[in-house]
Amino acid sequence: MTGAGWIVMTLSVGGITALLAWCIWKVVATPGATEHLHTTAGDIDTGDN
Amino acid sequence: MNKKITPPERWGTRLGVILAVTGSAVGLGNFLRFPGLAAKYGGGAFMIPYVVAFLLLGLPIALTEWTMGRYGGRHGFNSTPGVMRAIWPRRITPYLGVLGPLIPVMIYMYYVFVEAWCLGYAVQYLTGGIPSSTDPQDYKTFFNAFVGNQQDGAVFNQPFNTALVYLGICFILNFWLIYRGLNRGIEWFCKWAMPALVLCALIVLVRVLTLPANPEHPDQNLLNGLGYMWNPYREGQSLWETLADPEIWLAAAGQIFFSLSVGFGIVITYASYLKDNDDVALSSLTAGAGNGFCEVALGGMIIIPSAFIFLGPSVVQNPPGTFGLGFVTLPQVFESMPMGRFVGFLFFFLLFLAAVTSSLSMLQPAIALLEEGLGLGRKASVAFLGFITAVGAGFVIYFTANYKALDTIDFWVGNVCIYVLATTQVILFGWVMGIEKGYEELQRGGEIRIPRFVMYIVKYISPVYLLAIFGAWVYQKFIVDFYDPDTTSYLEQLADDRVVQFSVGLIVVTAIMFTLLIAQSVRRWNQLEQAQTEVKI
């Protein structure tokens, strides 16, 4: 692999990984992101009588 | 009709909806199609048009879909026809959204069969059913027999064809999860399937990155394999010469488009189940980044380097199509690899998980229309959709010779219809809703600030970009191919081939069915609105 190949691979893989890590951090840092915000599983009604 | 007042269905958690949308987008294209295209179109050079397409096309359209979906949900609509009606209340508008339920349902009819192949291959790796051979033809023969693509009806003619059994398992699993609903079905499954998928991919990645060089060909080593994937030029061609080829831009835009599942009518429905002030800006960016991570950091590092080490440069220079690469070439690679059987199982199991999360998302838009438009309960909606998709899937798996039915539906629905729906959506957002109102909607409850200039990209650049790609694609498929004596164009096939005509007929009949369902839904929505107005008076 050439030097340019290393640069492209590092920028591509590192860039998308960093973006995802930042996004996940922002989401998880928000209070309630992993809690039930709206309804609980038991609240869901299938609409069938 | 259900008389009970039930709370509107909602996602359980922020993370859940993000994983569900990411799961919808992550599929075979991330792990098979992307590396194949990158290797074909100049390796690392492919990343330049790929990133441009992500920024100018994929991300802006994803933002519009999330925003429009939540806006429609706030007005009580979950289906694309309903959401479009909420944005532009005209008589014609719901009918513009007919592609919203049509596209995912038609794609499901063949996608569930591919999902069954992935499950079948994963099980065959565990039970030792995959051939152990150095002859590539053995893998091709095994695959052809498994999917029955030698002649029409081959799958049904065999006394006990395992592909049908796996198909049945996939159908039952998908509809069971859909019946359980958004929260207990789709979200619950995606919350464990997506981490499991990434874990499987990471294990396979570690195996690939620790592979020794091919003992018979020392040049076929990991670094040279990575070079084939990431060096930004082809042999004898500079970076600029590679980028001057219009095909690379077309291929990159197409990959971004299909990879992010924009224009499928899925994200609109998923986002409609958010609450009024739930964030869409960060969620859409996270889902896009999750999809990109699976594609670039996992898919881009696994397939091409491992195929290069064991099969040499000739295979990676001209990689076969997605199915050939996944189900014929890769089993040869796994067979040559230490611990290859286990790695093969993990790889096809992760493809199976990716396929299930995608196929679930293909069913929900039609379920949303049946429930909100016709007022059906979940049991009736699932039964109705199950019958329709079973008939369609039965058609696809009967006409398996050369994947003719699958290929035809993919061409007309998975290409033409998607471009049309995506263009309709960006025009509706940028020109009908307007970028001022659209931006206000996008930022409502937003946890990150999207720069305002993105709205100008949505209004001006994305539609032009879309039309340019679609125009170039139509020119290639309908004009260049038509005058090429070595290629049978899709128009010629439509005129001459019985299976192609039946497949297009199936699409038309399904489109008519959804149009009638929308007409009935519009009548019901009008009656409900009239009743609400009378109550207020």
Model description:
- The complex is a heterodimer of chains A (49) and B (537).
- Chain A is 55% helix and 0% strand.
- The radius of gyration of chain A is 20 Å and the shape is rod-shaped.
- By secondary structure, chain B is an all-alpha fold.
- Chain B contains 22 helices and no strands.
- In chain B, helix 2 crosses helix 16.
- Chain B is globular.
- The N terminus of chain B is likely disordered.
- At the A-B interface, helix 1 of A face helix 1, helix 9, helix 10, helix 14 and helix 18 of B.
Can you write the helix and strand succession of chain B as a string? Answer: HHHHHHHHHHHHHHHHHHHHHH
Count up the helices of chain A. Answer: 1
Largest sheet of chain A: none
Question: How would you characterize the largest beta sheet of chain B?
Answer: none
**Strands of chain B, total number:** 0
Helix content of chain B: over 70%
Low-confidence stretches of chain B: 1-5
Low-confidence sequence ranges of chain A: 36-47
Q: Per the principal axes of the C-alpha atoms, what is the gross shape of chain B? A: globular
Mean pLDDT of chain B: 90
Strand content of chain A: under 5%
Q: Give the CA-CA distance, first to last residue of chain B.
A: 26 Å
**Oligomeric grouping of the chains:** heterodimer
Average predicted confidence as pLDDT of chain A: 76
- Please state the overall shape of chain A, judged from the principal axes of the Cα atoms: rod-shaped
